[in-house]
């Protein structure tokens, strides 16, 4: 199952994040197109987009050292979401999944 790790920025943007949000929105559209093409041409092949909320990663922590880590999730949670999408029976599909911290500030 191919897939992409997306971001809540694919659904919502904030100041100084326009290019990042635009790239994630474009990747989301590509993922949706690949999903539809696989549904049409490659039954049994799944394509999933995982929209991940804030994660406590070096990328975030190096850029925002004062970030409130209580509002971030572990990358392990997102990895578990990928495993969940992979575990769906072949007769079903997961085109998109959203996994965010309960107190996610950037979800619409």
Protein architecture, described:
- There is one protein chain.
- The chain is α/β, with parallel strands linked by helices.
- The chain is about 40% helix and about 15% strand.
- It contains three helices and three strands.
- The protein has a three-stranded parallel sheet with strand order 1-2-3, sandwiched between helices.
- The model has no long low-confidence stretch (mean pLDDT about 90).
Q: Helical region count?
A: 3
Helix content: 25-40%
Radius of gyration: 15 Å
Shape: globular
Strands ordered across the widest β-sheet: 1-2-3
The proportion of strand residues reads: 5-15%
Largest sheet: 3 strands, parallel
Q: Total number of β-strand segments?
A: 3
Name the average pLDDT.
89
Unreliable segments (pLDDT under 50, ≥5 consecutive)? none
The H/E string reads EHEHHE
Give the terminus-to-terminus CA distance.
28 Å
Given the helix and strand composition, which structural class is it? alpha/beta
List keywords for this structure.
single chain; 108 residues; alpha/beta; 3 helices
What's this model, at a glance?
The protein has about 110 residues and is of the alpha/beta class. It is about 40% helix and about 15% strand. Strands 1-2-3 form a three-stranded parallel β-sheet, sandwiched between helices.
Write the SSE topology:
Elements: E1 3-7, H1 18-41, E2 48-52, H2 58-63, H3 75-86, E3 96-99
Parallel strand pairs: 1-2, 2-3
